[in-house]
Design goal:
single chain, about 450 residues, alpha/beta, six-stranded mixed sheet, four-stranded parallel sheet, 15 strands, about 40% helix, about 20% strand
């Protein structure tokens, strides 16, 4: 089957059979079930592939050689031949030897869920930082699987003096060469990502010095995070109904009031069975969570599995060191869900980012949490106090400056800064008194 691209050139679509194993020997989060298989199907469609069939196997423990057992592999091979599929994708993580054996038996490419997610990330990353993170994750995924790729040569050299002439040594030599090359690439990419973190650290320090609150939007993939950012800030980020549509962090300013402006960031969506190497690779982006003043956890209220999805996000927030960060839970798509079953509480808001329903309540909640009691003032500074203007530019929000007999400054001040310039307020502010002075 072909699809037509925007440029009019047909592109062949990969046809895949999806396979999953449910076993008591696996951890709960590693098992496959009907819900995770549907999610795998959605991931395949996001990657541009077509599902030709789903096979879900149950057994006490994974088969060491074929993972799902010889009989089930034969069933999958028959389905592959009948549907003319060109790949098989497992919902579970496979070992390198599993992949090698299954590829030999099935005669088509075999991937696991992690490899599929990595492929989607590679398609979607746009910024230099995003591409660095994806490339690092790909090399970290590839490194332990090199043995399987060179297995035919390793087997040849492992037979000692009986190896055919010309095949002794090169397999292991090439394997070690590739390993060294990939380790060098990983080290180089890690260094480049450290530079990204340093730049982010400088930017973050500047924001903290300017006392600009930072809000991080997190949530399960396809929960509507980009749509919410667009709704709040007019960011015009492409927001499509597909998994992992956003990979690169987008940050926009949001003015909550005349005296309170915040920075709000969209982040990559979370998902069940997200490979640990992806979490590690994306820490340069996701570390913003740890330093955020507030986390907006967006939940897809229309999804019957929202509780499980919310639990996945909560667990990843803890892994990223942001467990103590204040949090607002935002139930999105409330126009599609059931309001009667939605939780209610002080830290919970129900909205529809698409229709705008509930947005005023969300803005009110943000203002209540983040407004640091700043207020607008007019100052009349003598010229010999011009140094205060530098202070205001660094630590206040300066709206306007006019030079006349004095320097008139319209600015927004925190209570701490007001204490330093109170004497120059116009009109003059009453001097605060202690209760015993009345």
């Amino acid at each position: 089957m072909d699809v037509m691209l925007d440029n009019g050139i047909p592109q062949e679509v990969n046809r895949a059979v999806l396979v999953g194993l449910s076993s008591h020997a696996l951890d709960r989060q590693e098992n496959a079930d009907e819900d995770t298989m549907e999610e795998l199907k959605a991931l395949l469609e996001t990657a541009g592939g077509q599902c030709m069939g789903i096979v879900l196997q149950s057994r006490e423990a994974p088969d060491p050689r074929t993972f799902i057992g010889e009989g089930k592999v034969d069933e999958v091979r028959t389905l592959v031949e009948a549907t003319e599929a060109d790949m098989v994708i497992f919902d579970n993580e496979l070992s390198p030897s599993n992949i090698r054996v299954l590829t030999d038996i099935l005669g088509v490419q075999v991937l696991d869920r992690s490899a599929l997610i990595l492929d989607i990330f590679a398609q979607r990353a746009r910024t230099k930082e995003g591409r660095l993170q994806v490339e690092l994750a790909q090399y970290q995924y590839l490194l332990p699987r090199l043995t399987g790729m060179w297995g035919h040569l390793v087997r040849q050299t492992a037979s000692g003096g009986k190896s055919p002439i010309g095949t002794r040594g090169p397999g292991e030599t090439q394997l070690e060469t590739d390993r060294r090359h990939i380790r060098r690439k990983i080290t180089k990419l890690q260094e480049e990502l450290k530079d990204v973190r340093r730049v982010r650290g400088v930017q973050r320090a500047q924001r903290e010095k300017n006392e600009i609150p930072v809000v991080a939007i997190v949530g399960y993939t396809n929960a509507g995070k980009s749509t919410l950012l667009n709704c709040l800030t007019g960011a015009e980020i492409p927001a499509n109904n597909r998994l992992f549509d956003t990979l690169d962090t987008t940050t926009r300013a949001l003015e909550l009031s005349d005296t309170c402006t915040v920075l709000i960031s969209d982040t990559v969506g979370f998902i069940r069975k997200l490979p640990h190497l992806l979490v590690d690779a994306f820490k340069a982006t996701l570390e913003e969570l740890e330093f955020a003043d507030l986390i907006l956890h967006v939940v897809d209220a229309s999804n019957p599995e929202w509780q499980e999805q919310a639990a996945v996000v909560d667990e990843l927030i803890v892994q990223l060191g942001a467990a103590e960060t204040p949090r607002l839970q935002v139930f999105n798509k409330c126009d599609l869900g059931r309001p009667d079953v939605m939780p209610h509480g002080e830290d919970i808001v129900s909205i529809s980012a698409k229709t705008g329903e509930g947005i005023p309540a969300l803005l009110e909640a943000l203002t209540r949490r983040l407004d640091n009691q700043t207020k607008a003032y007019t100052l009349q500074l003598p010229y010999d106090k011009g140094g205060l203007l530098d202070l205001l530019y660094r630590e206040a929000k300066v709206e306007r400056v006019e030079y006349g007999d004095r320097i008139q400054v319209d600015c927004v001040l925190t209570p701490r800064l007001l204490g330093q310039v109170r004497a120059y307020c116009d009109p003059p502010l009453p001097v605060p008194k202690e209760p015993w002075e009345d």
